């Protein structure tokens, strides 16, 4: 499972932080950070969801009020 996070779209509600520890508050920027993610050329942060953390990652994606977080299964199908 892969999570993609568009940090530019983030408005800093930090709801994802409450759902999954991989998201961290960055109060200086007013946005969340996705720990361990790699930034792509188009500015999206990508991270393979560790085994056993799929549920938390899904909830983090679902609670984002601006849909800055997308979750994909192992076949590349978007879950959230």
From TrEMBL:
<dbReference type="GO" id="GO:0046872">
    <property type="term" value="F:metal ion binding"/>
</dbReference>
<dbReference type="GO" id="GO:0051536">
    <property type="term" value="F:iron-sulfur cluster binding"/>
</dbReference>
<dbReference type="Pfam" id="PF13459">
    <property type="entry name" value="Fer4_15"/>
</dbReference>
<keyword id="KW-0408">Iron</keyword>
<dbReference type="InterPro" id="IPR051269">
    <property type="entry name" value="Fe-S_cluster_ET"/>
</dbReference>
<keyword id="KW-0813">Transport</keyword>
<keyword id="KW-0479">Metal-binding</keyword>
<keyword id="KW-0411">Iron-sulfur</keyword>
<keyword id="KW-0249">Electron transport</keyword>
<protein>
    <submittedName>
        <fullName>Ferredoxin</fullName>
    </submittedName>
</protein>
